[in-house]
Design a protein that fits this description.
Strand content: under 5%
Distance between the termini: 60 Å
CATH topology: ABC transporter involved in vitamin B12 uptake, BtuC
Number of strands: 0
CATH class: Mainly Alpha
Order of helices and strands: HHHHHHHHHHHH
Largest sheet: none
Number of domains: 1
Mean pLDDT: 91
Length: 317
């Protein structure tokens, strides 16, 4: 049992990290009142930028390359999300259609530039990805240490820390109160002097930053290159985690951990006695089936922010 946990837990954590980052981005966007179907596209853009930057500057930055890569991907993701913000907030276009357009645009840009720059359908493998490590002191704790803190990616625990920071920002600060106010009742927020458009822009840009971060972490820990199939469904799983987690940062983190566990079983399932005889294809589709079942079971009891998806027109009642 101990050996099984030691193989499942670290794998589940590193599959969960990109989902946690991206789901938190979705929480910020939807709490501000803007539906963001474009999380998949934001992850694609983050993965593309993270890999290309890593390949380009690995010789210059050395061991710091993956860390600088995810920072650059975070910035580019934030900038890229402005397209969705302008379309859905300033031009009041349909937010779902705008999000789908973001998904298509990101994949198109990534695949096109990959073919132009690398002459093939995928980039080279990065030489400076993230590596597993032991967390000092914590890894030496009996029983718990080997399971949770040995052979793990630092990004896994960074994601969990960011989730708690997001919870604090949303529920314990004046900024978070304003952001939630414009997502629940924008007219009342406007009456109280809160700039609804500004807060919604911030929410969408934060979702872009966290989506780009999630995509780059996925690419630099799990696949180590970029192609059209690097990000396939992870953004939608993150969106599902937002809904499953009831638009709450810690709820989204918990849902992302659940989906990450489901993904990890397709990798380590052969070593688990109960799953050893299950055909591999069933383990591969399990995360998506569980996503559907989770939403089917809980979406009816989860209430989205009341103004989510509704463009705000100043002065209209």
């Amino acid at each position: 049992m101990f050996d099984i946990l030691q193989s499942i837990v670290p794998t589940a954590l590193f599959y969960s990290a990109p989902l946690i980052f991206t789901a938190l981005g979705g929480v910020f966007s939807e709490r501000s009142g803007v539906i963001n179907i474009g999380l998949e596209g934001l992850m694609v853009m983050g993965a593309f930028v993270g890999i290309v930057f890593n390949l380009t500057f690995a010789d210059v930055l050395g061991a710091w390359t993956p860390w600088v890569s995810i920072v650059v991907a975070t910035i580019v993701g934030a900038i890229f999300s402005i397209i969705h913000a302008v379309a859905s907030i300033s031009f009041r276009s349909d937010q779902t259609i705008s999000g789908v357009a973001i998904n298509m645009l990101a994949l198109g840009i990534g695949v096109y530039l990959t073919k132009i720059w690398y002459g093939k359908g995928q980039t080279d493998m990065v030489q400076q990805p993230f590596y597993t490590t032991d967390i000092p002191l914590l890894s030496e704790i009996p029983i718990i240490g080997p399971i949770f803190f040995q052979g793990v990616y630092v990004t896994s625990y960074l994601a969990i820390i960011v989730a708690f920071i997001a919870w604090y920002v949303l529920y314990k600060t004046a900024f978070g109160l304003r952001l939630r106010a414009v997502g629940e009742h924008p007219m009342a927020a406007d009456t109280n002097g809160i700039n609804v458009y500004k807060m919604r822009y911030i929410g969408v840009i934060l979702s872009g930053a966290l989506g780009g971060l999630g995509g780059s972490v996925f690419a630099l820990t799990i696949v180590s290159n970029f192609s059209h199939s690097t990000i396939v469904g992870q953004g939608f799983m993150a969106l599902a985690a937002v809904i499953f987690g009831k638009w709450h940062p810690l709820g989204a983190m918990g849902a992302a951990l659940f989906f990450g566990l489901a993904q990890s079983l397709s990798v380590v399932g052969a070593g688990v006695p109960l799953l050893a005889d299950v055909p591999q294809v069933y383990l591969l589709i399990a995360p998506y089936v569980l996503t559907i079942l989770a939403l089917a079971g809980f979406i009816g009891r989860a209430e989205a922010p009341k103004a989510s998806g509704i463009p705000y027109i100043k002065g209209n009642r």
